[in-house]
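Support request from a user on the community tier.

User writes: "When I paste my C-alpha cells into the form, the page sometimes reloads and wipes my input. The last time it worked, I copied everything first. Here is what I submitted, just in case something in the input itself triggers the reload:"
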C-alpha cells in the first residue's frame, strides 16, 4: 500500500513499537496515537494549547514541516522541551515520514 507508512513509537515506559499509519486520512499524529490506543490526553483537542501531546522526535525530523509560532510558544512553556520537541497535534504525516521515530512525553494529568 502506498499510503501506509511505518513509524516507531516509544511510550513513556520505554516500550517501543512500530505501527502502520495511513497518510491519506488527514489525521494529526496526536489523533493517530490516540487511535492506536496510546494514552495522550490532548485536552485542547489539537489546538496547540495544552502540550499534553508533547513528543520528542528521535529521527526523521528533517521530513516534518517547520513548527509554527503557536506551537513554538507552547513548547517554550514546557520544562522538558528541547530542540527535538514537537506537539503531535500539529503534525500531519505524509509518505515522506516513513521511518519516523518518536518518544511520547506529554503529561498524563
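"...and here is what came back when it finally went through:"
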Amino acid at each position: 500500500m502506498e499510503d501506509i507508512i511505518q513509524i516507531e513509537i516509544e511510550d513513556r515506559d520505554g516500550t517501543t513499537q512500530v505501527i502502520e499509519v495511513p497518510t491519506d486520512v488527514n489525521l494529526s499524529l496526536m489523533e493517530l496515537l490516540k487511535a492506536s490506543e496510546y494514552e495522550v490526553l490532548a485536552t485542547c483537542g489539537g489546538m496547540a494549547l495544552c502540550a499534553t501531546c508533547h513528543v520528542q522526535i528521535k529521527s526523521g525530523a528533517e521530513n516534518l514541516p517547520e513548527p509554527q509560532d503557536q506551537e513554538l510558544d507552547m513548547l517554550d512553556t514546557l520544562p522538558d522541551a528541547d530542540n527535538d520537541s514537537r506537539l503531535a497535534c500539529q503534525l500531519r504525516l505524509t509518505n515522506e515520514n516513513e521511518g519516523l521515530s518518536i518518544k511520547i512525553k506529554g503529561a498524563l494529568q
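Agent notes: The reload is a front-end session timeout and is unrelated to the input. The chain has a mean pLDDT of 95. The beta strands are 4-10, 16-22, 54-59, 85-87, 101-104. Escalated to web team.
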